[in-house]
Design brief:
By secondary structure, the protein is α/β, with parallel strands linked by helices. It is built from 13 helices and 19 strands. It folds into 2 domains: 147 residues, 3-Layer(aba) Sandwich (Rossmann fold); 280 residues, Alpha-Beta Barrel (L-fucose Isomerase, Chain A, domain 3). A hairpin with a 4-residue loop joins strand 13 and strand 14. The longest helix has 21 residues.
Length: 439
């Protein structure tokens, strides 16, 4: 199934104890909380006021039947800690605990005693304090909600790998068991010969229109029509196995013999929100799936190239990015892949904007997620691919030292927007993952 912009399905309930001040406001505060969550793009399942074990169990069963991604609790007064635990026994999903202000209510007190309990039970939770209209709290719950939906998506995702990861690139190896344990995706292998066989069976008429549509989007085309048609056949073949196997993302083992073979396929699939990572790097494909799911937009798959004197760094790959990432249509060239002079790539300078960058690697008993934030600036075609020039707050050499010292890999996937809070939330609500950032 193609990745789509996330639609969190969140259960809501208000916590109270009948004797306490503020308990009579539970229904009204639940309605307000519901309105807030709907306003930030969530589907809401209302579970009602929870002030007894019986109501907690009933609410948990209802939310489990609706397959919610998480539960948001509004604390309107002091409440017994076992209410949330009883609900979680029926519906064990990440929770968000929002304590509403009130000098006499004891809501914050109840929340603190609950989190002390949940911490030792190893439940996943996030918290906020403030009025239901508090902007900081709303921003936090929005990030949390997206992370819960992403967690569910990753748990049911399938990542295809065509061929194998590149020889001499051990850090790109996937640990299938740890990936499944830490983030959730399952890996499915496909022989390159199968893809080429499907491609060979396609007639030129099956793909001619698609190639013509692509050339109209480019300013220049330096490849033959046959090469272009062949590249669309690979796209069609990959699209077939994606549909047949319900894949969410792909990795393609291209280097060196099949360089340029799947670059156009990657560009076109990105427009359908199906990431395709280069060089058989399944870890990068998962990173792209995370970014494309959170942003709803195509992503870059890059290598680090050259630190420049102005403090920016150029990143790029051969030319597999979505054409929508180009700085302008007037700068798009369809040409051969560099070094091998074969295949077809879409080459262009990448557009500017705020970016979030990830690198994923298996690290023994966990997955390591390295994250950077920066701003992509205008650049020229300084490399035959999709050059992306990024400015970071930290000095260039400090970033390079951090990468080397932490043992971070060389494939950085890049999404447009600051989604760092969502990434932090994802790590906090999953197990066996470690987030590292440059401080």
């Amino acid at each position: 199934m193609p990745a789509q912009k996330l639609k969190p399905r969140i259960g809501i309930a208000c916590l109270s104890s009948p004797l306490e001040v503020g308990a009579d406001k539970a229904a009204r505060m639940e309605q307000k909380l519901s309105e807030v969550l709907k306003s930030i793009g969530c589907e809401v399942v209302e579970a009602g006021s929870v002030d007894s074990p019986e109501k907690a169990i009933a609410a948990g069963k209802k939310l489990a039947e609706k397959h919610v991604h998480g539960v948001a609790f509004g604390a309107v007064s002091w409440f017994e800690d076992y209410l949330v635990v009883d609900l979680l026994e029926e519906c064990n999903v990440p929770i968000f605990l929002w304590s509403f202000p009130g000098v006499e209510t004891g809501a914050l007190c109840g929340s603190q005693q609950l989190t002390a309990y949940l911490k030792q039970l190893d439940y996943s939770y996030s918290c906020a304090f403030g009025d239901v209209n508090d902007e900081a709290a709303i921003k936090k719950i929005q990030s949390w909600a997206k992370a819960t939906a992403l967690k569910k998506l990753l748990r049911t995702s399938k990542i295809g790998i065509v061929g194998h990861r590149i020889a001499g690139m051990v850090e790109a190896a996937v640990n299938e068991i740890q990936l499944k344990k830490s983030l959730g995706p399952r890996v499915i292998y496909f022989d390159l010969a199968k893809i080429l066989g499907i491609s060979a069976q396609l007639s030129n008429s099956d793909v001619q229109k698609k190639w013509e549509e692509l050339t109209k989007k480019a300013n220049k085309c330096d490849v033959s029509e046959k090469e272009g048609v062949d590249s669309i056949k690979i796209y069609k073949a990959l699209r077939e196995i994606i549909t047949q196997n319900n894949l969410n993302a792909l990795a393609f083992g291209c280097y060196p013999d099949n360089m340029g073979c799947a670059c156009i396929a990657a560009s076109l699939l990105a427009d359908e929100n199906i990431p395709l990572a280069c060089e058989g790097d399944v870890n990068a494909a998962v990173g792209q799936l995370i970014l494309s799911s959170l942003t709803g937009r195509p992503t870059h798959n890059t290598d680090w190239l050259e630190p420049l004197d102005d403090g920016t760094i150029v990143l790029t790959h051969c030319g597999s990015g979505s054409l929508s990432l180009a700085d302008s249509e007037g700068k798009i060239t369809l040409g051969h892949v560099r070094l091998m002079k074969q295949g077809v790539c879409a080459m262009f300078p990448s557009k500017p904007g705020i970016v979030t960058m990830l690198n994923l690697l298996p690290r023994g008993e966990h997955y390591q997620i390295a994250m950077l934030k920066g701003e992509a600036l205008h650049t020229e075609m300084v490399f035959p691919g999709n050059p992306l020039r990024v400015k970071f707050q930290a000095p260039t050499m400090a970033i390079l030292d951090w990468i080397h010292n932490e043992g971070i890999g060389h494939h950085w996937v890049v999404g447009y927007d600051d989604i760092s809070n969502e990434i932090r939330m994802l790590v906090s609500i999953t197990k066996n993952n470690r987030l590292i950032e440059l401080v």
